[in-house]
Amino acid sequence: MTSINVASPGPPVSESASQLVVRVPASTSNLGAGFDCVGMAVGRSLRVSLRGVAAGDGLVIHRSGTLSNLECDPDDDLIWRGVVAAAVALRKSPPDGLQIDVTSDIPVARGLGSSAAAVVAGVLLANAILRGGLDSASVIDIAASLEGHPDNVAPCTLGGAVLSVRTAGHHYRSVRLPVHAALRFVFVVPDFEVRTSLARAALPAQVDFDTAVTAAARAAALVTGLRTGDPRLLATALDDVLHVPWRRSLVAGYDHVVNAAIATGALGATLSGSGSTIVAVCTAEFADAVLDAAVSAWRLAGIQAAGFVSAALAHGAAVEDGR
Fold first, then answer.
1. Whole-number Å distance between alpha carbons of 267 and 185
2. Closest to 237 measured CA to CA, from 37, 60, 101
3. Which string of DSSP letters, residue by residue, matches 137-185?
4. Cβ partners under 8 Å of residue 176, min gap 6
5. C-alpha to C-alpha distance for 39 and 246, rounded to whole angstroms
6. How does pLDDT run across 15-26, given as a tens digit for each residue?
7. Contact 185, 311 (CB under 8 A)
8. Which of residues 68 and 143 earns the better pLDDT score?
9. 15, 49, 278, 310: most buried, per Cβ within 10 A?
């Protein structure tokens, strides 16, 4: 467990707020052709509990789970940045005297939305403490302004699969997408990271017209395939042309894992977000076999990996009374 202290001006937190618990699910983004606009909440989560008030002590964070070894400058902590961004949006001072416990089973820097979950948790925590009344659209806008794009923050806020379209600046229209009940999402998580900044740097500055047309068609195929479960549409949608061709080289063993998943019954497989996790899509009866085959393929390449299976997680972030 790690602890940090952040000096922060603002009013003390009332004792009535000291039992808040914020839960935010993990998320996968892109799902192949839905680059920067489609994401889905999945079965891992981050939990923030407000366990005390100590006016004048700023922010005290106790981390555990996958965050135990996280090291960052206090001002760069993503939960705190979410708190500050929400306070600014509400035209209020950030709350002072927060003591929070944070635990997570979301792998860090693996393409499963760990940073988005932290930012959303901070926004929701500040909104609850400051009685801000932010709606889900405002939460997404604030969090996306920090993340740079909405494809993780929208599904972890709303739950389910979500399509987000920029309307202006950092404002988005986010809508839930239906996901066929038979579909399962197999996540294979290797023991190495791919930092988002590195994955972004790998992308080309522009693509040709034919690639753009193909990408648009496959994004439409993704939305329809998720709804219908159509195997041919999903296979096409998961074979991305916009970002995966430039990022796959960052993930050692990518082709071996994808091929093993498909050979075992997956409809397709691709990067979860920008990696390093690979997500395979299949129907429920093939899920365990696909997971075993994909993990084994990575191990044969000399890379340790683990994984889990999730349906589309129906619920999004929630603020609860922890008493």
1. 10
2. 37
3. HHHHHHHHHHHSSSTTHHHHHH-SEEEEEEEETTEEEEEEE---TTEEE
4. 158, 159, 160, 161, 162
5. 20
6. 445 578 999 999
7. yes
8. 143
9. 278
